[in-house]
Amino acid sequence: MILAVSALSPSANFGLGYRGRFAPSPTGPLHSGSLATALGSWLDARAHDGRWLVRIEDVDLPRCKPKAAEFILGQLQACGLHWDEDVLYQSQRTSAYEAALQQLFQTGLVYSCTCTRQHILNAIEAQGITPNRHQELIYPGTCRPALLLARNFGAELLNLALPVTWRIALNSTDLQQSVGDFVLRRADGFFTYQMAVVVDDAAQNITHIVRGADLASNTARQIYLQTALNYPMPQYQHLPLVLDAQGEKLSKQTLALAIHTENTTLSLQALQQAAHHLGLSNLSNDSHYTIAEWLLVATQAWREQKI
Ligand SMILES: [Zn+2]
Question: Ligand 1: distance of its center to the CA of 167 in Å?
Answer without folding.
Answer: 9
